[in-house]
Prior knowledge:
Shape: elongated
Number of helices: 15
Strand order of the largest sheet: 15-23-22-21-16-17-20
Largest sheet: 7 strands, mixed
Amino acid sequence: MPTLTINGKEVPFSPGQSILQAALDAEFEIPHYCYHPGLSVVASCRICLAEVWQKNPKTGELQQIPKLVPTCQQPAADGMVVHTDSPKSIANQKAVMEYLLINHPVDCPVCDKAGECHLQDYSYQYGRGQSRFCESKIKQPKKDVGPNILLYSDRCIMCTRCVRFTREVTGTAELIVEGRGAMEQIDVFPGRALDNELSGNVADICPVGALLDKDFLFQQRVWFLEKTPSIDGITASGDNIWIEHHDDRVYRLKPRTNLEVNKWWITDEVRYGWKFVHREDRLTLPRIKGMDPFEPEAAAGAYAAAYRAANALLGNAVKSKSEGTTGLLVSPMLSCEDAYLLATWVRSIDSKAVLAVGPIPRQGEDKTFPGGYTVRAEKAPNARGVRMVLESFGGGVLDAAGFTAKAASLSAVVVTGNYPSDWVTPELAKALASTGLILIDTLPGPLVEQAEVVLPGATWIEKSGSFMNAEGRLQSFRRAFHPVDFAKSEAQLALDLAGDREGRAPGVFDDAAVRTEMSRRAGLEAMAKAIFHPEAEAVVEPDMVFVEL
């Protein structure tokens, strides 16, 4: 593999890469603002300029390029020598930072970008210790550019990442560059708001605090947030995301780079679709029909009674009639591990229990943007994974319509929900009206009052597991925090129910161990061979000293 040398360190690169790309791949920092791997290269911010020496094609000797070169644009060459720490390069970095800060407001204490702002970081690392600018700063307006985004023009450094994003990735071109010189600013095209399905990404790619997410505005300081790698739990896209949370509360979702799935982007639907996790009317305690509601102080007793009632309901149905008179409807919002353990529990009681995949919501058709990102019409993260798991148990797997048609003839059924909104159709509610119903769900709905037993489930943010996306890609995700109040993951509920039936202490759900067990089962070998696990984020220790007051 060819190599170049940056500040005395040998760095390998692939043919066609720029110096900056090679440096970033090798985790070697070169300051940059306008460059983004998912956008065209414009080389406009100029802070990445460096001294470059390369071989003369005739003599083979190293020769210095007479002027500083933008590393984001200059192709890497074998044997090239690059200096970003030479006197000329350092002088350029200080000059660029000084120009960028001339009209920039000193409002870091109230800026949402503080703590993850490249202007802050580079000012500390590459800027001057003090400002030489004494004149009045030019004031730029604050603009409401769309339903989700605010533009603080004062803070903008004109890197044009956002403009290129709307032209090259979404193809909607709502953002433009208006004016010239010191009065240059970003604005929306007249009469067009920034309102495409990917609009929230402009706040992610903005290197400073110019474009801000309204939903996150003044909500939390970023250095308090914990980041958990996860997967889109709302649509079939399988987008890789970061769940950023603090004190068991989600504050925002951001894209996690995966070039084979979602690249650097996520949809606004995914970005803002987590609000149901913190709904005040979440189901948090078991319910048993005909009994007074349980109090939080009696949660352990409530679960014990609910487990006994659920097992008795299914067991009596099999005893009074025969096997095949019970059923399990597994929501496509659940993980593969949830589906496996629930089916294992139900089939341990009724070896011929009817298995079915719950309703799969759809909205419109798939939409692919010019940048290659596809918004999925299917609004369920794991329909394929759930079906794959249930099919491994044999006996065929029904869809939601088939289960609805058969439900009235069954004596007892287990139904799971976990949808972010209303999902029960009148036909399903009517079909289950005369059936012994065990409901596992997260939000209240029409089936809660019908059910003999209600068990509170957990959202995907509150548990670990794996989803299979629309392209058949199996990906695991991690729990961000424990389920709200006394709710439990469906996998843990299944283990508890199986333990109660067998008269033993239930095990603690371990998603990795369950996947290993599943992979030994015919039809589920993919659980071991084709699963993609999120990489843990490297912990960066700050060089700032914190003092306890």
